[in-house]
Design a protein that fits this description.
The chain is built from 2 helices and 21 strands. It has 266 residues and is mainly beta. The protein has 2 domains: 49 residues, no CATH class; 182 residues, no CATH class. It comes from Candidatus Chryseobacterium massiliense.
């Protein structure tokens, strides 16, 4: 009964028996594994709109929502982690704009009492603090559950990598517009002291620098975690490839509108 077979689980095999004389005295001629299953048998299960499909419910079940609240009585921010079904508190945050920032289930809060930014990582269910940041615009930037903060006391940008649950710092960046650019959990910062652009790659948990770029509009372009910068000193455009963790340069491009165009693929 083909209709009673669950084609979505385990390997399936077909056994062939035949009688060359056309009778019922069958002889086994082989067993072969099915490398694909009959489409008609599984199509209705894959169709999310079908009453017979549980796929949509499975997807919804895998979604989650975490919540952060500020408690003015003890000056703490509490995060509810739906994965662990627990609350976890940390001094800092505020109900004022800029003090609590959310990204992919994680939260960053600024604690003005110790001048630190704390990140709650839902995967580890822990808080992790770093000097720097501010509730002012531009000091904390979020991308794909990672956070970049600027520390004006040492002129460094620090990135919290949720995959490694660590902070990593690099000279450069600023809270001013254009100095920190985010894309798919990676960050590019411009360091005006050495005229370089540095990219933090969350996959390798490292910084990589290249002469060129600027905080001015048009000098740093981001797409799918990769970055393109224009270097006016050698008239080249350099691209940082996050997959290979390398820079590659080519004569051409400009910071003027229309000279560098990105095209992302799925």
């Amino acid at each position: 009964n083909f209709g009673a077979i669950n084609w979505g689980t385990n390997a399936k095999f077909v056994k062939v028996e035949m009688d060359p004389a056309g009778g019922s005295n069958y002889t086994n001629v082989g067993v072969n594994q099915l490398m694909s299953v009959p489409y008609a048998m599984v199509a209705d299960k894959v169709n999310m709109n079908s009453v017979n499909s549980s796929l949509n419910d499975d997807i919804v079940d895998n979604r989650f929502s975490n919540f952060a609240i500020y408690n003015s009585s003890d000056s703490k921010t509490y995060v509810f982690n739906s994965k662990t079904n627990t609350w976890n508190g940390q001094l800092g945050g505020s109900a004022s704009s800029g003090y609590i920032i959310a990204s992919n289930g994680n939260f960053a809060i600024y604690n003005s009492s110790d001048s630190k930014t704390y990140v709650f990582n839902y995967k580890t269910n822990t808080w992790n603090g770093q000097l720097g940041g501010s509730a002012s615009s531009g000091y904390i930037i979020a991308s794909n559950g990672n956070f970049a903060i600027y520390n004006s006391s040492d002129s460094k940008t620090y990135v919290f990598n949720s995959k490694t649950n660590t902070w990593s710092g690099q000279l450069g960046g600023s809270a001013s517009s254009g100095y920190i650019t985010a894309s798919n959990g990676n960050f590019a910062i411009y360091n005006s002291s050495d005229s370089k652009t540095y990219v933090f790659n969350s996959k390798t948990n490292t910084w990589s620098g290249q002469l060129g770029g600027s905080a001015s509009s048009g000098y740093i372009t981001a797409s799918n975690g990769d970055f393109a910068i224009y270097n006016s000193s050698d008239s080249k455009t350099y691209v940082f490839n996050s997959k290979t963790n390398t820079w590659s340069g080519q004569l051409g491009g400009s910071a003027s509108s229309g000279y560098i165009t990105s095209s992302s693929s799925n």
